[in-house]
User: What shape does this take?
Amino acid sequence: MSLLVVGSVAIDSIHTPTAVRERVLGGSAVHFSYAASFFAPVRLVGVVGDDWPAEHTQLLASRNIDTSGLKVVAGGKTFFWKGKYAPNMNDRETLEVQLNVFGDYLPELPDNYRRSDYLFLANGSPITQMKTLEQVEKPKLVVADTMDLWIREQHEDLLALFKRLDGLVLNDSEARLLTEEENLVAAGHQVRRMGPKFVVIKKGEHGAMFFSEHETYVLPAYPTDRVVDPTGAGDSFAGGMMGYLAAHGQFDSRALKEAMAYGIVVASFTVEDFGLDRMKKVERPDLDARLQRYRRMLSF
Amino acid sequence: MSLLVVGSVAIDSIHTPTAVRERVLGGSAVHFSYAASFFAPVRLVGVVGDDWPAEHTQLLASRNIDTSGLKVVAGGKTFFWKGKYAPNMNDRETLEVQLNVFGDYLPELPDNYRRSDYLFLANGSPITQMKTLEQVEKPKLVVADTMDLWIREQHEDLLALFKRLDGLVLNDSEARLLTEEENLVAAGHQVRRMGPKFVVIKKGEHGAMFFSEHETYVLPAYPTDRVVDPTGAGDSFAGGMMGYLAAHGQFDSRALKEAMAYGIVVASFTVEDFGLDRMKKVERPDLDARLQRYRRMLSF
Assistant: This one.
């Protein structure tokens, strides 16, 4: 089934306690697409400037990612993010953001994208996410991400968007901010009652929680002793999850849990090197082998 | 098989963001014993003052916990701890500690306790833990807990103890302090190489990790939206784990993982009210039912 993602396409500079990597391929839609492409063809919609290296597009295109929705703005510059990780590799600080061409970008879907079955609204304002959603004809499954900025500054628009979503993916601090509830189990269900049929709370190194009307569960992160760069892990998780669902063609309770597990496994590779460097060396059998180990790990 | 625990027996005053509870029955050996008693008879060794209410001893004795090793010091006062939890209910601050009779306590095992198959050395200095261990004839499984104070102040004694242990249970911040390693997977294996055959790192609301020479896994906490008082959850976890192992009579890889799961389930009840209040209302079938839900939660 067709899977469409709309979100940021970026250049990242990443500082970790032990290394610095300048101008790495990044952005929510990029990490999402790459992860999803292990499972299903992906349609990528986003915007870059003319500083965008052609080889990045080539890399994505080589992965069964349709980049015809990637708009290049002549004379513009690509979204740039510079961040620094704390020694625990979980907390991070934004050192610099240049929105550039992403700042006033309103996605316009190519005609053939308007019929997409699976839609992921990655990082973007709820207004932009809603305008994107309205361009898709009868999608089967709509899932969105959000972030603290929109929770604080576009609260009403976000609540309006929630009513149109099947699923919402957000991280633990965002769930707490949105609900003013410290307990994540209570927060997850509170977010769900705002509209989405299911909610996934990402907890970074501690895994992810799932909430639907009749289900509550938590899956741990896959334990890895090699955490080099967590940037994009959350988007990669969402990509693995949505890619699996799109390939599977179903999104019942069982499929959703397997999708969560694949998302967790994909993300565990993402963090093992900067940007997409680790992912570029991964093949689908690596994912399946790690999923099997993960499944055994959780069996008793 | 016989299960012996040696550790603190205490009176706790607990401040949470929404409530205060004064002079609650607590202490590592108490929480451990109560949790373990769902699975196997327990021998409790500890010390209290003559301020200790007789009904606490009666409660423990009613649970198949042998309290003949609980020493009452006439004219002495029981170990007292006062703590305050942060709004996240995971971080806490110690407001007051009175070691009282626990301060210079050296456990002396009753003769019939010296032959115990399963031994848990709960909260205590490594010197005291070692002196206790030396009184037990050929135990089958020896597991200890430790804490930041001993890591900082009795490091050499702790390392000597590690070489005598089958298992060590400690929390995430303690593992990081001990190894100066931020990544918990790396830290867990590093602690293991210091001596214990297996290491369990407790992560509070995020569950627990297991490390042996050939195994690494993580199990999430059982998700509960009712976290009233996390005091004793770690000891309760250890009690559930050791109680299950003692009842099972084996400690192979499979038994250890089931034991971890039972520990997690028991701890998930402990946090649902102050002190032992929730536990007092729990029966073994409640544990088994929650374990089944937990197992299903982790199956995909």
Observations:
- Residues 253-270 of chain A form the longest helix (18 residues).
- Chain A touches chain B at residues 87-89, 182-186, 189, 203, 205-207, 209, 216-221, 223-225, 227, 254, 257-258, 260-261, 295, 297-300 (CB under 8 Å).
- The first strand of chain A starts at residue 3 and ends at 6.
- Chain A has ten helices and 13 strands.
